[in-house]
Amino acid sequence: QVQLVESGGGLVQAGGSLRLSCAASGGIANINIMGWYRQAPGKQRELVALITSDGFTNYADSVKGRFTISRDNAKNTVYLQIHSLKPEDTAVYYCNARGLSPYNYNYWGQGTQVTVSS
């Protein structure tokens, strides 16, 4: 059974930094797209950043220049380095692993809370 396990969330002051990690296990390999999403209270889940297996990245406008996504394909792990945190970054951050056709899978982690105090 495929599992995505996030770690690295926590409480941090505005302007601080965090590094989130997400490790995929359970017989999954060569994940086409890995990404981070977040969901703040009362809001819809939104894309934060994604990275393809060959290193292409895409970021939400709100995090460009502050967040950096990277991955270690050998470890099936994706990272999100976050700098200059703002209170509006407070949310539950979810890891996602998606396989494109013909595999067509879409897995989610359980989420890790990031809280930024002002």
Q: In short, what is this structure?
A:
The protein has no helices and eleven strands. It has 118 residues and is mostly beta strands. The radius of gyration is 14 Å and the shape is globular.
Q: Spans of 5+ residues with little confidence (pLDDT < 50)? A: none
Q: What gap, in angstroms, lies between the N and C termini?
A: 40 Å
Cα radius of gyration in angstroms: 14 Å
Into which percentage range does the β-strand content fall?
over 45%
The structure class reads mainly beta
Helix and strand sequence: EEEEEEEEEEE
- Overall geometry comes to globular
For the secondary structure, the number of strands is 11
Strand-helix topology:
Layout: E1 3-7, E2 10-13, E3 18-25, E4 33-39, E5 46-52, E6 57-59, E7 67-72, E8 77-82, E9 91-98, E10 106-108, E11 112-117
Structural overview:
- The chain has about 120 residues and is mainly β.
- About 0% of the residues lie in helices and about 55% in strands.
- The chain has no helices and eleven strands.
- Strands 2, 4, 5, 6, 9, 10 and 11 form a seven-stranded mixed sheet that branches. The protein has a four-stranded antiparallel sheet with strand order 1-3-8-7, with no helix packed on it.
- A hairpin with a 4-residue loop joins strand 7 and strand 8 (about 75-80).
- The mean pLDDT is about 95.
